[in-house]
Amino acid sequence: MKIEIYGAEWCGYCKQAKTLCESKAVQFDYIDVDDTTNLRALETRLGFKAKTVPQIFIDGALLAGGFSGLQRELANN
Questions:
Q1: Spatial distance between the Cα atoms of 36 and 45, rounded to a whole number of angstroms
Q2: Are strands 61-62 and 28-32 parallel, antiparallel or unpaired?
Q3: Which H/E stretch holds residue 37?
Q4: What is the pLDDT of residue 53?
Q5: End-to-end CA distance of the chain, in Å?
Q6: What CATH number is given for 3-74 in this structure?
Q7: pLDDT in tens, 22-74
Q8: This prediction's pTM
Q9: Counting beta carbons within 10 angstroms of the beta carbon of residue 75, is it exposed (0 to 12), middle (13 to 18) or buried (19 or more)?
């Protein structure tokens, strides 16, 4: 399972998403959208402007629900 978390350091849910992955020993890539280049790449990938973070992808597919969606996805791990 490949997890990509697009987030920002000031975002509590982004921090919780990283902590959840770490506690479950699940590898993930964290991409900081405070870097304008990363934000543009995210919005290109989404096809629209991201209004919230985290935006999370699992195996290349956008996960609905952000952090709560990740909690549901990892509940059985």
A1: 14
A2: unpaired
A3: helix 36-46
A4: 97
A5: 11
A6: 3.40.30.10
A7: 999 999 999 999 999 999 999 999 999 999 999 999 999 999 999 999 999 99
A8: 0.94
A9: exposed
Read off the pLDDT of residues 10-33 as tens digits, 9 standing for 90 and up: 999 999 999 999 999 999 999 999
Q: Hey, CA dihedral for 39, 53, 49, 72, is it positive or negative? A: positive
The closest of 31, 71, 62, 74 to 40, measured between CA atoms, is: 31
Q: Which residue has the tokens 């549901």?
A: 72
- Which amino acid type is present at position 43? E
* Residue 76 banded pLDDT, cuts 50, 70, 90: confident
* CA–CA separation, 39 and 68 (whole Å): 21
Read off the amino acid at residue 44: T
What the block records as the tokens of 64 is: 């609905």
Q: At what angle do helices 66-74 and 12-23 cross, to 10 degrees?
A: 10
